[in-house]
Prior knowledge:
The protein is mainly alpha-helical and 80 residues long. The chain has four helices and two strands. 1% of the residues are buried.
Amino acid sequence: MHSIIDILDESLKNCKNVAVSKNHSKVLELCYQLIYVLVSSNQTYRPVLVYLKSRGDFILRHTSALPFYTKSSSKKVNCK
């Protein structure tokens, strides 16, 4: 879990600087999917959420960096 969070945090830092390769984006997608599965499970959600909160409020940092799109177009509204 530590390594997955480190990978995702590093990608967040490099969001503006480096174009993400197709292979790298697939790894990031799989990391987020694993976190989603762990948080979705009734058996694992509590400790996982506590851990994510202890890692510098992971959820807030990553959701605030998501690009948002307008409904009328495919233009990005923001990306941090």
